[in-house]
Every structure is written in C-alpha cells, then in structure tokens.
Amino acid sequence: QKEVEQDPGPLSVPEGAIVSLNCTYSNSAFQYFMWYRQYSRKGPELLMYTYSSGNKEDGRFTAQVDKSSKYISLFIRDSQPSDSATYLCAMNNNFNKFYFGSGTKLNVKP
Amino acid sequence: GAGVSQTPSNKVTEKGKYVELRCDPISGHTALYWYRQSLGQGPEFLIYFQGTGAADDSGLPNDRFFAVRPEGSVSTLKIQRTERGDSAVYLCASSLGTNNEQFFGPGTRLTVL
User: Fold this and answer.
1) Is the dihedral of CA B28, B30, B36, B40 positive or negative?
2) Segment B56-78, tens digit of pLDDT
3) Residue B24 parent element (H or E)
4) Contacts of A76 (CB under 8 A, 6+ apart)
5) Is residue A39 within 8 Å of residue A18, measured between CB atoms?
6) Closest Cα to residue A19, out of A55, A61, A50, A47?
7) Cβ-nearest to B40 among A8, A41, A94
8) What's the pLDDT tens digit per position in A34-73?
9) Rounded to 5 degrees, what angle do the CA atoms A11, A61, A65 make?
C-alpha cells in the first residue's frame, strides 16, 4: 500500500466550477500537508501548506485536513482555464522526507 | 531573483553509462532535496542535504546512485551503470531551512536507451 493515495483523474470541469481534489494517507504520524501545482514540463510549485487538522483559505483555494479520517482536500472556487495543471498532495512528519501523491490532472474548459 | 536551476534540461544516454545531473539552488538556501518523478507519478524522495552533509539518503534506490554537495551550494546527482528503469525526470528543490517552503527546479529529463 502506498503512503499517499490520490486519484489520477483526469478531471475535466467547465470554467467557473468548484473543483474538489482529494488524497488519503496511511501514516498517522504525518503532520504537515501541502498541495502543489505542476504545469507540464515544469517543477511543482507550492499552493497551500497546512499543519495538523483544520481549514486554510487563500484566495480561490481552500485546503482541508481531517487527520481522524486521514483525508485531505483542496477546493478551487471559480476555476479558470489557467488552473489546468496536475495537482499533487504531499505530506510528512518532519521536513526531511516528503511523500507525494501521484497527482490529479485537472482540465478547466473555457 | 533566480530560482532553482538544473542542468542539463534533457539527457539521453545508453544503458551502462555514467551520468551527472547538476542542481543550483537559490542563493542562501541551506537545505537541498533530490526527487525522481516517473511518468504519471508524483515526485519520489531520494536524498536531502542540510549544508554539505547528506542528512537523509534513505530514498536512494541502490548504490548506483550517489549525490554530493561539497560546498553547501551546488549539488550533483551521480548515477553509475545506468539502466532503462532509471529513465525519469529528476527534480531538485531547495529551502531556507528544514521548516520552510521547498522551491523546485524545472527538472532534468533522463532517458536511458
């Protein structure tokens, strides 16, 4: 079993839709949870970072962590074609070794 | 300012050859990470440096892989006797410290024929 599971998609939505991306994990020691966005042939860029359980909002993006269910989510409101990319979740219990999901490919259609 | 840079951007080699991949981190960043990303997968941790020393090399798949960071800045990932299964994008990231955001480079796409 992988440490982090993520639906690979692809997920296709119309412009303006609310997008929900999710990951599950198995290691209850994970405390730091991140979402990265990766455009084709580029390195990942950090979108959201959350410590422990709870919600965090930044503009159109909201990250949620439910440690009791070992489940994290990223919501994108008013999605734009420029949001089309692969979204990666990542997590760890210290800052040495990150565990990434396999990524969900999102396509926002104009 | 300049981000993380990696050279070469693409490397094609033959099975059994030796390759070196270079990472130039953001100036002042003490932590440096190497990851490997296969097609359709997320980045897989290889090794982490704090300064000049490898603080965690538990992700290196076998002894054909080795990385150095002799002066605490530039790092080189070295792969001996390359195999076709080594083909992937090798990503480098750096951060100010171990509790800061990681900034990724664009990666080196390695193809082993």
Assistant:
1) negative
2) 999 999 999 999 999 999 999 99
3) strand B19-24
4) A18, A19, A21, A60, A61, A83
5) no
6) A61
7) A8
8) 999 999 989 999 999 888 888 999 999 999 999 999 999 9
9) 90
- Which residues in chain B are closer than 8 Å to A90, comparing Cβ atoms? 42-43
What residue has token string 């990766």? A38
Q: Inter-chain contact B48–A90, Cβ cutoff 8 Å?
A: no
Rounded to an integer, what distance in angstroms lies between the CA atom of residue B87 and that of residue B80? 13
| CA–CA gap between residue A64 and residue B50 (Å, rounded) | 30
Q: Which residues of A55-76 are buried (b: 16+ CB within 10 A; e: fewer)?
A: eeeeeebbbbbeeeebebbbbb
A10 part of contact set with chain B, CB < 8 Å? no
Neighbours of A13 (CB within 10 A): 17
Burial of B39 (0-12, 13-18, 19+ CB in 10 A): exposed
Here the tokens at position B2 are 């300049």
